[in-house]
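Okay, is this right?
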Amino acid sequence: MNRIDTASLSSIIPFSFIGQFDRKIRIIQAGVWLLLVFPLWLATEAIAPQIVQAYTARVDLAIDSLPQENYNTVLSRAEAVARTAVQRSFDQDILATEVSIIVTVQNHGRIAPVLTLDVSRVQWKQIPDPQSWATYFKTARSLLLFE
C-alpha cells in the first residue's frame, strides 16, 4: 500500500513569501475600490452638489442726535449709516445673502428705533437705495421729542 503524504501549503511555502502576496492582494483590492468609488462619487456630486449655507447678517447701529438738529436731518443721517452698513456687510461677507439693519437714535437721553432695513444681495445690486428697502417707525419722532 502506498502512503501519500498531503502536506499543508504553509509547510511547503515559507510564511514571508505568503505575506508578500497578502500585501499585494490588499493593495490591489484598495486600488479596485478606489477605481470603482471615485467615479460614483464624482457622478453624485455632479447631479446633486453640496448645499451652500448662506445666512442673514444682522447689524444694530446707534447714532446720537447733534444739538440743534431736526428729525429730518437725523433721519437722513440714519439712512446714510444704513446704506454704508449694508454695503460693508455684503463686501465683507460673501456668504451673507441678506442684511437686516436696525438704526436707533439717541436724543436728550431718549433712545428709539428710527428705521429697519431688510434687503437681499440681489435686491441691493438692482437698487442700492436704503429708502427703497427701509421701514420707518412713525412714532420715533414723538418718542425722541423732536416735535
About this structure: Residues 15-47 form the longest helix (33 residues).
